[in-house]
Write a structure and sequence with these properties.
Elements lengths: L1 H22 L24 E13 L2 E13 L4 E14 L5 E4 L3 E10 L4 E11 L12 E12 L2 E11 L10 E12 L4 E12 L2 E16 L2 E10 L7 E13 L2
Antiparallel strand pairs: 1-2, 1-13, 2-3, 3-4, 3-5, 5-6, 6-7, 7-8, 8-9, 9-10, 10-11, 11-12, 12-13
Length: 257
């Protein structure tokens, strides 16, 4: 009952924010971080609490995983902000057919943006993944990460490139503990309300198989305070999910100052 209650609260918060977004087109817009793996260097509007919620369904061989990823974003000013995210609910099935359900892990991130000009920015994220999921869903250990970001507008095309290092809490004895991740996404508007995003991303770790995937997504923004996305990702290595489908939205929840 508590799990369903948590999902219901998230859904109600999202619906309320959607209604608010539709009524306030003259207010400042949102800064979406989804649907790509890459994060932009830029922060949301200072003082505006933003909320992202989505659905993700993936398949790898005979395993299945469905989840509700969420993120709360708040910038203190143009340079500093915090992110709180995770998975509101996870339903997973392993190769034997056994199922596991519950709340996923939680991630806390401190973000610093370095704004060069209106078209160029660098970013730095320091994150910690808290083991709030049970072992059948998460790793059961904390992870720590640092992510370097370069964002640039190339005409109408916006690029976000990320290079990150993650110190894993759970890893095989004969493998490396530090995982390197690299991703680059390109977003382009195709009309006043529609946009397209393409991304290539992957991870590498000593003694473990590398992952890689290509992602394609469309975004729809009926107002500047609401962004809706949907897309698909395809794995390029045997260690990557065969495919993933996803959809979600980004809205402001409140103006705190």
């Amino acid at each position: 009952m508590n799990k369903l209650h948590g999902i219901t609260l998230l859904a109600l918060a999202g619906l309320g924010a959607l209604a608010g977004a539709a009524r306030a087109e003259d207010e400042p817009g949102v800064t979406p971080y989804r649907p790509s793996v890459s994060s932009p260097a830029q922060l949301p509007l200072p003082g505006q609490l933003e909320f992202e919620l989505g659905g993700l369904n993936s398949k790898q061989d005979d395993t299945r995983r469905a989840s509700l990823p969420y993120t709360f974003k708040l910038a203190f000013n143009e340079q500093w902000g915090v992110l709180l995210g995770g998975e509101a609910y996870v339903s997973a099935r392993d190769e034997s057919g056994a199922r596991a359900n519950g709340v996923g892990d939680t991630t806390v991130v401190l973000k610093r943006a370095f704004l060069v000009d209106s078209a160029t920015a660098f970013g730095l994220e320091l994150g910690a993944k808290l083991a709030t999921a049970k072992d059948t869903i998460g790793s059961g250990r904390r992870d720590y990460s640092v992510n370097g970001i370069f964002s640039r507008d190339l005409g109408n095309v916006h690029m976000d490139a990320n290079l990150n290092l993650t110190r894993l809490g759970d890893y095989e004895a004969d493998s490396g503990r530090t995982q390197t991740g690299l991703s680059t996404s390109f977003s382009v508007p195709v009309s006043e309300q529609w946009g397209l995003t393409g991304e290539l991303s992957g991870t590498r770790r000593r003694g473990a198989d590398s992952t890689a995937q290509v992602l394609v997504a469309a975004t729809y923004s009926p107002t500047k305070r609401l962004a809706i996305d949907f897309g698909v990702a395809r794995g390029l290595t045997s260690a990557s999910p065969d495919w993933s489908v996803f959809s979600g939205f980004v809205v402001p929840l409140a103006r705190l100052w």
